[in-house]
Amino acid sequence: MVKHVGKHGVKRSLAAGIAAFVVIALTGFLLSTNVRVNRTTTVNNDTADLIEHSVDEVAGLQKEVTDLTSQIDSLTDILSADGSQSSSQSGGNDSSLMLPELEGAGVTVILDDSPLWENAVNNNGSISNIDDYVIHQQDVESVVNALWAGGAQAMMIMDQRVLFNSAVICSGNVLSLHGKKYAPPFTISAIGDASAMRKALNDSKAITILKQYVTAFGIGYKVENKDDLQFPSTAALLQQLKYATVDSSKVKDEEAAQ
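The structure assignment produced for this chain is given below.
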């Protein structure tokens, strides 16, 4: 018996193959689309978290700026207040904000450049060893340190009260103090026991060296007793010094992240 194979059987096999291919293709397309959607969602979520964190950080920094600005304004108002109020209302004001006016006996030290420096100019018009003929920063500092060591109760350099954070800076023979500049002669006055301060000046090794320059080069150095020195009141440092500390909250966050 001869087996008859119809054409309809072939058509069904081809159609089934095409349908399977289409199903597989659609499934792959759906899977790839799903992966892209999930990945985009994750990226968007991460970006949103970063933006939210940045906004919070900016807000925190802005708050710190506002607080610091407020503190600066308060200190500026205090500095601009009339200093005479401390004397007329001394019972109600914080006297620690001002160094009070003082008067009393003491000594005054005068330092000056040598008048002989002009003789150090040679025939070429240049100056030979001019540093030996002028007052330097270390000379002023030596006098100040010796006076403090001798028990000075208060001190002035030129027309300014000396604070604990005062810094004497010399550029050439020009002295700078608290933003003001002075030319020699330099006057340093101190209220206290004149005998003790004179002794401290004489015992100072730095002053001993300075006196050698007085003899050799004519540097000006003179100590005078004063019966009535008068120091005006002046603003003291308003803000206490603070030291940096570790932010423990951030340290704990870093340890937790590790």
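Interim note for the steering committee: The first strand starts at residue 98 and ends at 99. The radius of gyration is 42 Å.
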